[in-house]
């Protein structure tokens, strides 16, 4: 183990009544990189992601974040440590403004999340930082827009802003471009690349164009186990990978 790895797993395993969904997985996520977790349907990607983000408890194995054992920590625990999951469940309030959504997210860092009896003027001190985050994801001019009125792609950008408000060191993205049209996919790809500066990103993603364009390193799962790992150019030429996952994706379209 070296300090270059921000997140590592050792023999990570999850069994469900005799079925092994994640089988002896060893991951090493290098600090400052974008790392993709891919594989065909049923490969164990979602279960693995749920183990890493503490929505499931492993049957066996350990998970280390910054060298600390987080195997039995809660999602709240790891968020406080700097490991935050985004794009799984919407973290935005549809009938509040874009600015208010980010200000509420910022409150979680100040410990005032539940001070509902206080005037909203107490949030004004957060305005500058909230606007910085909105500018970072390209939403500055939509600050006063009611969230429900925004198109889908911009709502996802807002989710990213609310996640960045927690100041994550490691950002975990769960299928960030799922359900998007080409224009929104390109926009979100640009945002992911932009916010990766100074951070580490681990993402589950089906769109191979996104994976090939953004990822420094890729881990391919098949039947719950690691099939191979490496840069996209190397992984995409692996005969086992092409047969198991990419054979039907020659055009670089989204995997099923």
What does this structure look like?
This protein has 256 residues and is of the alpha/beta class. The chain has 2 domains: 1-82 and 169-256, Rossmann fold (3-Layer(aba) Sandwich), CATH 3.40.50; 90-167, no CATH class. It is built from 9 helices and 11 strands. It has helices spanning 45-52, 75-81, 98-110, 127-136, 152-164, 182-195, 208-214, 232-235, 239-246; strands spanning 5-16, 19-25, 28-30, 34-38, 60-65, 68-69, 83-86, 170-174, 200-204, 217-222, 225-230. The strands form 2 sheets. It has a 6-stranded mixed sheet, with helices on both faces. Strands 1, 2, 3, 5 and 6 form a 5-stranded antiparallel sheet that branches. The longest helix has 14 residues, at 182-195. The chain starts with a strand and ends in a 10-residue tail after the last helix. Mean pLDDT is 85; it is low at 248-256.
